[in-house]
Amino acid sequence: MNKQTKPFNSLTSKINKENSSERLLSLDALRGFDMFWIMGGAAFFIRLSELTGAPALQWWANQLTHAEWHGFQAYDMIFPLFLFISGVSFPFSAKKRVKMENGRNTLYKHIFKRGLLLVLLGILYNNGVSFDFENMRYASVLGRIGLAWMFAALLFMNTRKTGTRVIWFWGILFFYWLLFILFKAPDLGDQDHFSMRGNIASYIDRLLLPGRFCCFEFGDNEGILAVISATATGLLGILTGEFLSSKLRPMKKVTYMVVAGIFLLFVGQAWNLVFPINKILWSSSFVCWVGGISILLMALFYLVIDVWKQRKWTFFFVVIGMNPLTIYLANRIIRWNSANEFAFAGIADLFPETWSPLIMSVGHIAIGWMFLYFLYKHKIFLKI
């Protein structure tokens, strides 16, 4: 047998022995919960805090913005959580594909196709239909998700044991840290290896990434080098998905995930002392910190939804979670504000003026959700 096929055949054998192919409702609900915040949830809570002035809501509203550089805000979770969830779903989707004829080739084609299509969709999302290649933005959220997920999936397929995959996870993070310790930007004279001007990741963007940057002048928020550490985020998700598909008792799964999540939180804060938590750099400490939160959220949703079977409340989020790519692209393409004005401006006028922003934010969520519900009812799902 070809040595290169052995790791994959091991994966195939393991997957084919799994008896249950039930879709995890908790995974769809968590994905919907994640996307809720960018389809209007953040704006709603910000408006609510402005209206009420409640200290707890004001604190939460402050969390619904990105950290400017070092540090962490809750809104910084949305991107890595989605990448983590994409990883969690991979062992379940792979299970179906390897049962097909030529399953190995089919799965490889799917991985490369999905990764590259997300890169192209990210470019389209940033620029629309544009032929001004010199001034386009090429890095993107979708592009990083596509590449990091693709590399993580390939690593998973071509390693045989969970222990080896865990070594890869930590190896990627230590390698990424070493890059920042050993190198800095040579062009702007800043001696701080982790600053906006001095870090090696932004320098590589300035050196190699064509087009324009977003959203700071020294590099791109979704630049080239951080694909390395983002791959670790995707791999952590895949490892979690593999664990969830095991035959352990459900409560043991929850317990182990809670322990793993707390451990990663501890490592993230310890690492923060020498490699600051930073979303734009996607620092190794950031991967551990958001990875810990992601696993704890997955454990909570899995416990409540799939273990305790408390599912009625999930429908709102599941409708969103079944079509995440659709709502993400629709936010760029569809004029939601026009529909919102048409449907809810009159309702807002019935309330005091101070209530208007809150009413309109509710309308924005409602219109987006009804759009997704229509697609859900007609079984229309945009998937890659």
Keywords:
single chain; 384 residues; mainly alpha; two-stranded antiparallel sheet; 67% helix; disordered N terminus
Characterization of this structure:
The chain has 384 residues and is mainly alpha-helical. Helix content is 67%, strand content 1%. A hairpin with a 2-residue loop joins strand 1 and strand 2 (219-220). The radius of gyration is 22 Å and the shape is globular.
Q: What is the alpha-carbon Rg in Å?
A: 22 Å
Biggest β-sheet strands, sense, barrel: 2 strands, antiparallel
Distance between the termini: 32 Å
Secondary structure tally, helices: 15
Helical content stands at 55-70%
Strand and helix order: HHHHHHHHEEHHHHHHH
Sheet with most strands: strand arrangement? 1-2
Q: How much beta, percentage-wise?
A: under 5%
What is the strand tally?
Answer: 2
Low-confidence spans: pLDDT under 50, at least 5 residues?
1-5, 7-21
Helices and strands in order, then pairings?
Layout: H1 6-16, H2 25-52, H3 55-63, H4 78-97, H5 103-127, H6 141-157, H7 162-182, H8 200-208, E1 215-216, E2 219-220, H9 227-244, H10 250-272, H11 284-307, H12 315-321, H13 324-333, H14 336-349, H15 356-377
Antiparallel strand pairs: 1-2
Task: Briefly characterize the structure.
The protein is built from 15 helices and two strands. By secondary structure, the protein is mainly α.
